[in-house]
Design goal:
The complex is a heterodimer of chains A (about 325) and B (about 350). Chain A contains 10 helices and 7 strands. Chain A is of the alpha/beta class and about 325 residues long. Chain A has one domain: Thiamin diphosphate (ThDP)-binding fold, Pyr/PP domains (Rossmann fold, 3-Layer(aba) Sandwich). In chain A, α4 crosses α10 and α5 packs parallel to α6. Chain B starts with about 25 loop residues before the first helix and ends with a helix. Chain B has 11 helices and 12 strands. Chain B is of the alpha/beta class. Chain B is globular and about 65 Å long. In chain B, the strands form 2 sheets. In chain B, strands 2-1-3-4-6-5-10 form a 7-stranded mixed sheet, sandwiched between helices. Chain B has a 5-stranded mixed sheet with strand order 7-9-8-11-12, sandwiched between helices. The chains are: A alpha/beta (about 325), B alpha/beta (about 350).
Chain lengths: ~325, ~350
């Protein structure tokens, strides 16, 4: 089983951690923007704090999208990598090239005329985001189908390949859903190239590469799949596990169950963003001023997105009027 | 189609037309599936026991040998799961055809069908070219869990198509059209029609594709329009034949596609006869008769010479007891009685 203590997993080339940090900054700013700016919000919750589950799930989504080498609008998009998260986690979408404005437009109102006509969650396959999925069961089922093996066009009859990989990021409580089990069972039976990432807010044992807790292990064994566990507080470890997991499902080794939790270090911090920021500065991957600039850039991008989305004609913003489409030809 | 020595044989029941033989309703469905799988490698089948066992009604007997386990997928008993799986497959360019062993079992998949599949295009998540097909209907002494008609559970859901053929020709042509459609289609097959000898017919050798959304006139008449579908088409035709001897001319309209309804065809017939009876095997309250009646009220009221009437099953589960089931299902006498009432009004 991958991730067992003492094993030495193959090295995975890691992406630029500063870029990951940048996406986490923007994602966090977006998550907080709704209550701070009094936006009428769906599906973004109004709560002012960022709950731990959202912090680690969003980090997992960013890391998953990053390790899928996800296509973005800037370089053309692709159809072979799919990510499904709950609708109120912006990180995955941002890591796939969705702008803050587009995400906000999807969260709180219609797309702003004249800015970007594409829907915020992106049609398949341009962004690889089939959602939003309010509940994880359908997400697991649908992505199990999107990542089915197919006949290899260059191989002999019966030779399969896995043209698509998918990641579903959900809270660990998803395992209480029968729909999730139905979907994951089918993924296991059909050997879909699917990684199911479950965020857990329970503290786990310290150390990297720990085996999954017994109950997750039991679940994995029941399905005949592998399970790994990683801490969202150690982004490089999380990226590495996701990278190895994606490579294995792409090779046709069957779906992977991954538990992501928040195991605090000695400082007791349980926020992936804070831990990654400190690490980047400590490792001199970026100096403090540069990191502060990144955070400020995220704030500016958010402010601009808010300004553009706050078109009073949309009627969706801040309770300014009835929900009605903006007049044709209106400028943002 | 060409077959080399290594190719498993075409199942006999799925190739009668190529030999000039008549096909039953069931064989017409098998032919449609087989031909579409040959025509388009993106078509795959999913369902319980459809592979090794050939399906509960043997529609897909021999398909596994011919197309292999990746295109004829035996699934666990998990309707929600494999319907969701089909939705995902449809997203990536495949054209899944899901078999519900009995359509009664579609209810666990209601969530994914109504919340995900039907809304996909509206959400900007892309088309859902998939078909969900399976046997429906009573008369088989199978009780409430294997006899239901499910159309009205989905009729209220925008984004779906619902097809319910009554003849072998329509079953084949409509199923082929459904598989080629980029919209999700629920395809109901009355199991009482599957092997009905009177439905055997020699089908056209040419590629038979019948457009969705178009009703047909199963019998022309002048006095009363009867709008119906599925098994009831044949009960209505029988009633029409007996009424002819009484001097009542009945036009029978076979809806074929329930969603979207072919309003134009219905209104044209109603405007001709001025009298409308709607017949369905499904239960009364919330049945399709209500929707058709209000549409006629909206579009052809001035042409009506009598109130709109309906003959349906009563509001009850399908009974197990044979006598009760016979009483439950609309029959020829009941239909004829309603037509006489309208004709004399």
């Amino acid at each position: 089983m991958d991730g067992e203590a003492g094993s030495s997993p193959p090295a995975v080339p890691l992406p630029d951690l500063v870029r990951v940090l940048q996406q986490l900054f923007l994602s966090r700013a977006l998550t907080r923007a709704v209550p701070e700016h009094g936006l009428r919000a769906w599906p973004v919750p109004r709560s002012s704090a960022v709950p731990l589950a959202e912090g680690i799930l969003d980090a997992a989504a960013v890391c998953a999208a990053t390790m899928m080498r996800a296509p973005s609008r800037e370089h053309g998009g692709g159809s072979s990598e799919f990510l499904a998260t709950s609708p109120h986690l912006p990180g995955g979408a941002l890591a796939r090239g969705v702008t803050a404005q587009r995400w906000l437009a999807g969260a709180v109102g219609p797309p702003v005329p004249g800015s970007d006509p594409a829907p915020p969650w992106g049609p398949i396959p341009s962004l690889g985001l089939p959602g939003p999925f309010p509940f994880p069961g359908i997400a697991v089922q649908v992505l199990a189908g999107m990542t089915l093996p197919q006949q290899d066009p260059d191989g002999s009859p019966g030779t399969l390949h896995w043209p698509a990989v998918g990641v579903v990021v959900a809270h660990r409580s998803a395992l209480t859903s029968g729909a999730v089990h139905e979907g994951f069972n089918l993924a296991a039976v059909r050997r879909s190239a699917l990684v199911l990432v479950l965020g857990s807010t329970e503290d786990g044992p310290p150390g990297e590469g720990s085996p999954p807790r017994p109950e997750l292990d039991d679940v994995a064994e029941a399905y005949g799949v592998r399970a790994v566990r990683a801490s969202a507080l150690d982004i490089p470890i999380l990226l590495g596990e996701l990278g190895r997991g994606l490579a294995s499902v792409r090779r046709g080794e069957g779906p992977l169950l991954m538990e992501v939790d928040a195991r605090p270090g000695e400082d007791g911090i349980r926020d992936p963003l804070t831990v990654l920021r400190d690490r980047v500065i400590r490792a001199r991957e970026a100096d403090a001023a540069t990191v502060a600039e990144l955070e400020e850039d995220a704030r500016l991008e958010l402010d601009e997105a808010i300004r553009r989305i706050s078109n009073p004609t949309s009627g969706y913003i801040g309770g300014t009027g009835p929900a009605s489409p903006p007049p044709e030809g209106a400028s943002p | 189609m060409t077959e080399d020595a290594a190719t498993p044989p075409t199942p006999e029941h799925a190739s009668r037309t190529s030999r000039g033989e008549p096909s039953t309703f069931l064989e017409a469905i098998a032919e449609a599936l087989f031909e579409e799988m040959i025509r388009d490698e993106a078509v795959l089948l999913l369902g319980e026991d459809i592979g090794e066992y050939g399906g509960a009604f043997k529609v897909t007997r021999g398909f596994l040998d011919r197309f292999g386990p990746d295109r004829v997928v035996d699934t666990p008993i998990a309707e929600a799961g494999f319907t969701g799986l089909a939705a995902g497959a449809a997203h990536v360019g495949l054209r899944p055809v899901v078999e519900m062993q009995f359509m009664d079992f579609i209810s666990p998949a209601y969530d994914v069908i109504t919340n995900y599949i039907a809304t996909s295009r509206y959400r900007g998540a892309g088309a859902q070219p998939l078909v969900i097909r399976g046997p429906v209907g009573g008369g088989g002494r199978a009780g409430p869990f294997h006899s239901q008609n499910v159309e009205m559970a989905f009729f209220h859901t925008p984004g779906l198509n619902i097809v319910y053929p009554s003849t072998a020709r329509d079953a084949k042509g409509l199923l082929k059209a459904a598989i080629r459609s980029d919209e999700p289609v629920i395809f109901e097959e009355h199991k009482g029609l599957y092997r009905a000898p009177f439905l055997r017919e020699v089908l056209p050798v040419d590629d038979l594709v019948i457009p969705l959304g178009k009703a047909r006139t199963a019998r022309e008449g002048e006095d009363v329009t009867v709008v119906t579908y599925g098994m009831m088409v044949h009960r209505c035709l029988a009633a029409a034949r007996s009424l002819e001897e009484e001097g009542v001319s009945v036009e029978v309209v076979d809806l074929r596609t329930l969603l979207p309804l072919d309003d134009d065809h219905i209104m044209e017939s109603v405007r001709k006869t001025g009298r409308l009876l709607i017949v369905h095997e499904d239960t009364r309250t919330g049945g399709i008769a209500g929707e058709i009646a209000i549409r006629v009220n909206e579009q052809a009221f001035e042409w009506l010479d009598a109130p709109i009437a309906r003959v349906t099953a009563p509001d009850a589960p399908v009974p197990y007891a044979p006598d009760l089931e016979d009483a439950f299902l609309p029959d020829e006498a009941e239909i004829a009685r309603a037509v006489r009432y309208l004709a004399k009004y």
